[in-house]
Design a protein that fits this description.
single chain, 283 residues, alpha+beta, Alpha-Beta Plaits, four-stranded antiparallel sheet, 6 strands, 27% helix, 9% strand, globular
Length: 283
């Protein structure tokens, strides 16, 4: 297959996944180690009270099969438009142990209000208040995201929501960047990688300055789901309000091959983390 990549799209993501990290980098293990630290303390209450307008239990309203959503579904952050989010999750201070971690034999989901920086329950919450680990990703459902929301056959028209179960959904589109506010592209890429990397292992950042956008690819799907909710309508510190949604697949055959091998790498690592892999260590 022949395909000419437009120059404005930047270089092909050769460093994605398997191509860039190579065997035994231990990138994902760092998050597992940090998780142990988080669980050594109770989760912090991010707000003093629960916002009634934000309370919503998926499934308590009619489900529209055609549109792939519940009637009146209000889990989306798109309602904020271009307004800056009022709250932000800071993993180092907010993450901690909740009732979900103390439950024996019962698997829970991750708290979507926590990752948005506004869970008022703290240690009494029945959902996890920490980033997903490799082991969490290995046991993740293909039909639900890490927050328990149903994934659907295809992405929503606006590329928001929980994503598609026919795609690994590990790449985020990040729009409304202010490239003019940064000294150079390297500084901006470092900021993107660092701030999105707070919520999961980032394997590649493809910055396209001419369009003020970037594509952030996580190693694991649950990390991408976590990062998407955490960074939607947030700022990198230069007055931007980020537009974060699922990215369309890169049509470049080289990128497609990199993605295929990275997907396989992530699957093997996740299986090994839950004791079902045939190899040893990370890939």
């Amino acid at each position: 297959t022949s395909w000419d990549r437009p120059a404005v799209m930047g270089p092909s993501p050769y460093a994605s996944g398997w191509f860039g990290r190579g065997g035994g980098s231990g990138g994902g293990s760092r998050y597992t180690t940090l998780n142990t630290e988080y669980l050594s303390k109770p989760a912090r209450k991010q707000k003093s009270h629960i916002e009634a307008t934000k309370s919503h239990q998926e499934g308590n309203q009619d489900f529209n099969i055609w549109y792939g959503k519940h009637r009146g579904e209000n889990w989306s952050t798109n309602s904020l438009g271009t307004a800056l989010a009022e709250n932000r999750c800071v993993i180092s201070t907010d993450a901690g142990r909740t009732k979900a971690d103390d439950s024996t034999g019962k698997k829970s989901f991750f708290c979507i209000q926590f990752v948005r920086g506004k869970c008022a329950r703290g240690p009494s919450c029945t959902w996890y208040h920490r980033p997903p680990t490799i082991a969490d990703d290995g046991s993740a459902s293909q039909t639900h995201d890490c927050f328990g929301r149903e994934r659907h056959k295809t992405h929503k028209d606006d590329m928001g929501g929980a994503g598609s179960f026919e795609s690994p959904s590990r790449t985020l589109y990040v729009g409304r960047l202010r490239t003019d506010k940064w000294g150079n592209e390297g500084e901006l890429k470092e900021a993107i990688s660092g701030q999105f990397g707070e919520f999961g292992e980032v394997e590649h950042v493809n910055l396209i300055p001419a369009k003020n956008i970037a594509f952030v690819r996580y190693r694991f799907r649950s990390g991408a789901e976590f990062g998407k909710e955490a960074m939607s309508n947030q700022t990198l510190g230069q007055d931007e309000v980020l537009n974060v949604k699922w990215a369309h697949d890169d049509p470049n055959p080289v990128a497609q091959e990199a993605i295929r091998r990275a997907d396989a790498d992530a699957a093997v690592a996740a299986l090994e983390a839950r004791g079902e892999g045939g190899g040893g260590g990370e890939h």
